[in-house]
Amino acid sequence: MVEAAIIYPLAIGAVMAMIYIMICMYTSAAIKSNLNVQLRYNLLEKTQAGEIINLEGRFAPDDKYGKSAFNKKIGITEGSDSGVKVLLGTTSHSYKGNGLMRNIIRRNHQGAIYLIDEKDYIRKVDMVIK
Questions:
Q1: What pTM does this model have?
Q2: CA angle, 69 as apex, 66 and 70 as ends, to 5°?
């Protein structure tokens, strides 16, 4: 009986901690996915190098964690990295503390995608090869 009084709360606490960790990891993956989708959408708008195909079975999460993560506002800016134009996207997400963790945890997510002008890229490659 004494062992059960000590071990059961520890086992339940460990399972709850794993559930919270998995929720945070899932939310982070959904935010990163949304960030990449929005960056690629803006890339296609800026470069006019392809077309956007809207599918009927598009990914739209149904649970509360995925919906809140996928509907985040993303700040997109244009920068430069070693002379190459880059689209930079940033968003942040805050996790509400439960149980022992009463404070709010804020996490920033960042993504980058290169703006490549295909015509200019092919000219430069031809110039290097010849």
A1: 0.68
A2: 80
